[in-house]
Amino acid sequence: VLRLNPSLLLFVADAHLLQEEREAALQLYQKIGAMNYTESFIEAAMVRKRLIIDGIEGEALRTIYYEGVEDSVKSVFLQNKLLQQKESPFLQYLLAAVKERNGESFSAAMLYQTVLDSETGNDMKYFAAVRAATILYGKNEWERAKSLYWYAKNFAPTETMRDYLDERIELFDALSIELQ
After folding, report:
1. Among 7, 17, 28, residue whose Cα is nearest residue 51
2. Between 144 and 93, whose confidence is greater?
């Protein structure tokens, strides 16, 4: 069953983390990320691994994923965490995701771009660049979006993800020609 439904692995890993079994959770998150099942699973595993690595796991996992709180509450929670850990690109990434869901897309794009300038893992840089680019594309800022897709290619974890970025870049090239 776990081979066919990696979301079960994610729930099991989350359960380990909520029980403060960090090593077991970390191993499962790494396994999920290595499965290359879908981009969203790779991102979910990356985010949860960072919860462990940055030492903010239990409370953050419950608040962000399992308590059913409003995004405005999540935003305040993450902003308070950022006050405590000012240089945490991971918290900036999570706050950007919450702002994106709240419709604060420009603010989210700026936070994602802040993550790109930080010392963080390639996986987080990839997802931050793609998310920022997608937002900017929606705002008709095609050149900025295109440059972020080019940037993300440096960190794409799979060939499929690199192919996706190439398609997006080709789209922007076609748009540029069409608009001239």
Report:
1. 17
2. 144
DSSP string for residues in the chain: -TTT-HHHHHHHHHHHHHTT-HHHHHHHHHHHHHHT--HHHHHHHHHHHHHHHTT-HHHHHIIIIIS---HHHHHHHHHHHHHHSTT-HHHHHHHHHHHHHTT-HHHHHHHHHHHHTSS--HHHHHHHHHHHHHHHHHTT-HHHHHHHHHHHHTT-SSHHHHHHHHHHHHHHHHHHHHH-
pTM over 0.85: no
In single-letter form, the type of residue at position 113 comes to Q
